[in-house]
């Protein structure tokens, strides 16, 4: 679970205020199990790419946490919600990016 602490938050984008992030913040929820309607008419894209060593994994993890906290703000700006998975794999040497 990600916690949002406005006093220590430094948004990814310098153009977005902490107050804007706070308005859109939601506590993480579990998805319901089973097949859902989101299986209709979708495209999938998967990418595996190298991660710059040795600092890349730490930078990725720091930014991933911020991105999870800021996700509701950016989803509202984008106007579209995708299924998105991004993870470090192979001991942090590669990043796996999957989106529908």
Strand content: 15-25%
Distance between the termini: 23 Å
Q: State the order of secondary-structure elements, H for helix, E for strand.
A: HEHEE
Question: Count of helices?
Answer: 2
Low-confidence region ranges: 33-40
What strand order characterises the main sheet? 1-3-2
Instruction: Note the main sheet.
Output: 3 strands, antiparallel
Cα shape: globular
* Nearest-integer average pLDDT: 77
Radius of gyration: 15 Å
Helical residue percent band: 25-40%
Structural class by SSE content: alpha+beta
Q: How many strands appear in the DSSP assignment?
A: 3
Topology:
Blueprint: H1 18-24, E1 45-50, H2 56-78, E2 84-89, E3 94-99
Antiparallel strand pairs: 1-3, 2-3
How would you characterize the overall build of this protein?
It is built from two helices and three strands, in the order αβαββ. With 100 residues, it is of the alpha+beta class. A three-stranded antiparallel sheet has the order 1-3-2, covered by helices on one side. A hairpin with a 4-residue loop joins β2 and β3. α1 packs across α2. The longest helix has 23 residues. The two termini are 23 Å apart. The relative contact order is 0.22. About 8% of the residues have low confidence.
